[in-house]
Every structure is written in structure tokens, then in C-alpha cells.
Amino acid sequence: MSIFPEGFLWGGAVAANQVEGAYREGGKGLTTVDLLPIGADRFSIMQGNIDTLEPVAGAYYPSHEAIDFYHSYKEDIALFAEMGFKALRVSIAWARIFPHGDDEQPNEEGLQFYDDLFDELLKYEIEPVVTMAHFDVPVHLVQKYGSWQNRALVSFFENYARTIFTRYKDKVKYWMTFNEINMLLHLPFVGAGLVFREGDDKKQIQYQAAHHQLVASALAVKLCHKIIPGAKIGCMLAAGTTYPYSPNPADYLEAMDRDRDSFFFIDVQARGAYPGYAKRFFKDNDIVIEMEPGDEEILRHTVDYIGFSYYASRTTSTDPEVLGKTTAGNVFGSVENPYLPKSEWGWTIDPTGFRITANQLYDRYQKPLFVVENGLGAVDTVNEEGKVEDSYRIDYLQKHLEQMREAIEDGVEILGYTSWGPIDLVSASTGEMKKRYGYIYVDKDNDGNGSLKRVKKSSFHWYKKVIKTNGGSLSD
């Protein structure tokens, strides 16, 4: 018998800017992700170093077409239904609803697109799990207001939230406010549309922007509970426990501080107030958070569940020699962990860390968890028979799901599991297509060439069995 609870939400997760394409169709406005080219400049721009807020002639922008989900969503959802999906995590592109972000009236064509998308999911009894802001701030808000460093964005986001809650109240029961909200500290242009100029106090700008996002998130929670009684609205964290490299107490303290960089956001969203360690950090770093009257009361509107992504654990040290031995790992710095293997992109592979992270989050917040991203980016090839044999992905996912099962047996309440990229999509970090996550192969390369034909991988059939048995096949 499976220990996964009845009604467990098995499925997959995508983001509008990584699958939809049609970046200027249907009245959609330009977003920050639409300014991220593939190539050497991408990572610097993601950190807020950008000279022009418009696409540059001659550069290739993967989000502009992506995998054309905007036009092919019916065929793709039929494939997800064939796997037996109970849920699909998607995001709404803010600029499809309000092209400039501060428009007085929403764009009906954008609203209708998501109506049609949700209807198609519900036709197959697939629950939409909707992220309101997934790394795509309308560019107009960056140009005119400086994005989230400006308090004005709180009211624009509140209007956006009210609009989509009212429109989709009979179709969407699960919501999340900001995707990987802690990414604001690591990739500020991606996480919050922040652009830095010479002489800027970056920390002050980032934490003021963070305050505005936290207030906006709390207002969205308040609105969701009012407009859609019975709905569940959560936050979303880029998670992964940090190990101290050695038993040196200084290493343990460093690991604690690294984790708190992420927990800070969720502590506010789940507990309703700034934690003491954050107040000390602000004081020690001369950061002054400007609050309006009533902000502390607004923040008391806390989330119903904790959504999180897990790809890798992290390791840290205070030893200069150890710090020189770094490894890749999403965008979070980490020293090499000698006990863990790595993916083709240098990310550590740590299934046990998944269980540890889930326990850590549940112990801290005592709220239901939702695993909304987990997966392996790898180079997949179509063989002479037209098939994609991705046994390495099956192995990765099998081991992680086994550890999720262990976490559930530990007493951790988990609502569901939506693996990242059930269909190949544009990689957020690199902009590549060759870094594939899906159960479904999409014929497209890094240069934008390909037929966009969909091909089921061997993992497609493996995951179908996992869902059909409610995780029971993991014991086979």
C-alpha cells in the first residue's frame, strides 16, 4: 500500500515565460524575462546590470517563442492527462492581464486565454495550481517606477490580484503569490525587476523591495480569502538545506545564516511579522525599511501552505581553503560536498537533502508543504528509433520521491508534488533548451531551430505508473 495520502496532487510545473512564447500576442506587454538573451550577458542582466529596457537587435531571446505553449496548450495538456496528472502548476503572465502593469482596465484577450487554459485542465480533472508572479515584471513598471523598490507596485499588484481572483474564483483553488521570492536577493532583476546604477546602495534597495513584495503578498492572501472562500494560497521558496562543511561552530553559524537568507521571507509570510534576526541584520547593515502605517497589520495575513522548489542542498565553510573549492548549484553559492555526485551542470544531487529540507520546513512552520519544483536538467537525445531513453532522470526522480515518502512517514504534511518541467522548456538560469527536464521532449535547440514536435520519453511511462499507483510503484 502507498503511504501517499488519498487525493495527493501528482503533476508537473511550468512558468508562463518559459513555455508560452507569443511574447507580444494577445495584447501582452513586455516583461523583464523578455529582455534576457541567451549567452554571456544573461547572468549579469539577471543580477540587475542592464543598459536598455528593450530587446537588442541581433540577440536571441528564448522567451519570445519558448515552446509555443500559448498555441499548443491543448495538445500538451492532453499528454499530461495521459500521464494521469492530478495538478498542473502554471503561472499567469502579469503583462497578459495588465500589459503595462498600471493599466486602469485589464486586457480581456489575456484574461480569456487563461480562462481557456483552466477550462482545458478542468476538462481532464487536472487542478490548476497558479503562481501569480513568476519572474516576469511588466517592463513599464521598471521604466516608470523603478519596479518593486517603489511602493506604487503594491497597489498595482493588489489590483492585479483582485482582478484574477474575481475572474477565476470558480476555476482555481490553489494559488501562490511570488515564485521563489528569496531569489530577489540573488537575481534581483529576475526576482523583482531591480536595475542598479553606479553608487546605488544595493542592499537597501533589495530589502526595501522585499518589504513591498511581502506587503503585496499579504494583501493578496487577504483578498484571496475574501473573494474565494475555501481557496488555499501559499508562498514559494527556493529551498535547499545548507550543511556546515565541518563541526567547527563557525561553520554551523555560517550555515544558519545562509539558511536565514531564505527563511527571512517565509518567516514573514507564514508567521506574520519580521523575525528578530532580520531586525538585527537591518541594524548591523544600516538598512532602514520604510513602512507605511498599517503595514505590520497587513503582514499578519499569513499563507495557508508553503510551496518550495528543491534541486540541491548547499554546503558552506569559514575556512578560506575550503571556500576556494566551489561548485555550481542553481544560483546559490556552495563549496564542494565530497559525499555528493553532480549533474551535467555541476548541481549536487542529494535526495536525502530533500527529506531533510522538507522536515526542516515543516518543523519550522507547522503548515502543509507543497513540492512545486524538483527535477533533473540533462542533455537528452532522440535515438535512431525516434525515442528518448532517459533512465538517468528516472533514477534521479525515483530517489527523490523515495525520500519524499520518507518525509511523509516522518510526519511531514505534503499536499502534492509537481515536478519541474514535465515538458521540455527554456531553462531559467541559462536560457538553454538543451538543458531538458521534461517527460516530453520538444524538438528545439538553443538557437531556436526545430519543429517543436513533442516526443514521449521513457520517463513519461515511468511517471504515469507512479501516479496511477499513487506512489506505490516506487517500491517495485
TrEMBL record:
Active site location: E373 (nucleophile)
Keyword Hydrolase in record: yes
Matching Gene3D superfamilies: Glycosidases (3.20.20.80)
One GO biological process term: carbohydrate catabolic process
Keywords: Glycosidase, Hydrolase
GO cellular component: cytosol
NCBIfam families for this protein: PRK09593.1, PRK09852.1
Protein name, UniProt field: 6-phospho-beta-glucosidase
